[in-house]
Amino acid sequence: MTAKIIDGKTIAQEVRAEWKVRADALKARGVTPGLAVVIVGEDPASRIYVGNKVKACAELGLHSEHIALPADTPEATLLAKIAELNANPAIHGILVQLPVPKHINSDKVLNSINPEKDVDGFHPMNVGALATGNMRFAPCTPYGAMKLLDKCGISIEGKHAVVVGRSNIVGKPMALMLLQQNATVTICTSRTRDLARHTRDADILVVATGKAKMITGDMIKPGAAVIDVGINRLPDGKLCGDVDFDSAKEVAGYITPVPGGVGPMTITMLMANTVQAAERAAAK
Ligand code: GUN
Q1: Which of 2, 84, 166, 250 has the most CB atoms around it within 10 Å of its CB?
Q2: 120 has catalytic annotation
Q3: Cα(127)–Cα(132) distance, rounded to whole angstroms?
Q4: What is the C-alpha separation between 269 and 18, in angstroms, rounded?
């Protein structure tokens, strides 16, 4: 079998166009959705991600503020900046790019964001809302992965979904969203004994471990939908996922490539969350 390749770039454009309609409707009512992106320090990858987020706002006609703070910014200064953004009516979404430098307590920072502006969905109130089936803001990467399944017509109900990775940003929220859609969910970690025994039983396999090509074709059930959230740089400079694409595509039914799979969906769902935050604020 050769898998159907899930074209994240095309689907992301399609979803963005849907949200642009909603953003334009808000603008016609005098409300321009606004996103503040805060970055502390000089991490090159983070700077690229943040630049892409600001660019996406411009493409959709959203207002954005890019706040770049030096690496030695005191925690109190960052908290004061967030308090200012919480009070700013032109800002509907606030995102603090992670990781933050070690001297800053990231939990304290995430907890200080107004949950109604928490477009990353990382505030404990939004995590709790997701866990209890009352989702307010879904974290953008797993939300994008769910959207890919939906747009490809891959049903979730009753299926066995296996999530490899248990991070707060991807693995845990992904598992909760799949559970909410009535999948039977298994969460594996890097310490799971006989990982292949679990992955081979997955109808839907989501991999977010940060380990290049760790899932190979022999670990995949024939016909499974494989969602690769990883993005790793190989010694030759090329990007690859957590799944060994070449062997996996011979077994899977559907597979996301890296790059061009889940990646383009992340920023799209950030735009969606920002527009939704603005819609909720305008309805008040
Ligand atoms: N760093 C890596 N992924 C993310 C994300 O989704 N949001 C934020 N704020 N930082 C990240």
Answers
A1: 166
A2: yes
A3: 9
A4: 11
Q: What is the pLDDT of residues 35-46, one digit of tens each?
A: 999 999 999 999
| Band (172; pLDDT cuts 50, 70, 90) | very high
Predicted pLDDT of residue 190? 85
48, 67, 97: residue to mutate for ligand 1 pocket, most atoms within 8 A of CB: 97
Contacts of 194 (CB under 8 A, 6+ apart): none
CA angle 17, 19, 23 (to 5 degrees): 115
Q: Six-digit token pair at 202?
A: 């997955």
Active site residue 97: yes
Instruction: Please give the helix or strand (H or E) that residue 187 lies within, else none.
Output: strand 184-188
**Ligand 1 contact, 95 CB (< 6 A):** yes
Omega before 101 within 30 of 0, i.e. cis: no
Whole-Å CA distances, 227 to 13, 70, 248: 19, 36, 11
Q: For ligand 1, is residue 50 a contact (CB within 6 Å)?
A: no
pTM comes to: 0.97
Tell me the fold of 30-115: Rossmann fold (3.40.50)
Ligand 1 centroid to residue 254 C-alpha, Å: 26
Does 270 contact ligand 1 (Cβ within 6 A)?
no
37, 120, 170, best to mutate for ligand 1 pocket (most atoms within 8 Å of CB): 120
- Residue with the two structure tokens 């928490």: 118
Structure tokens at 249: 């595509």
Of ligand 1's listed atoms, the one at least distance from the Cα of 270 is 6
Q: Where are the domains of the chain?
A: 30-115, 139-263
Which CATH fold would you assign to the domain 139-263?
Answer: Rossmann fold (3.40.50)
Q: Are the folds of 30-115 and 139-263 the same?
A: yes
Q: Is 29 helix (H, G, I), strand (E, B) or coil?
A: coil
Catalytic residue list contains 221: no
> What is the rounded CA–CA span in Å between residue 79 and residue 109?
6
Average pLDDT over residues 17-26: 98
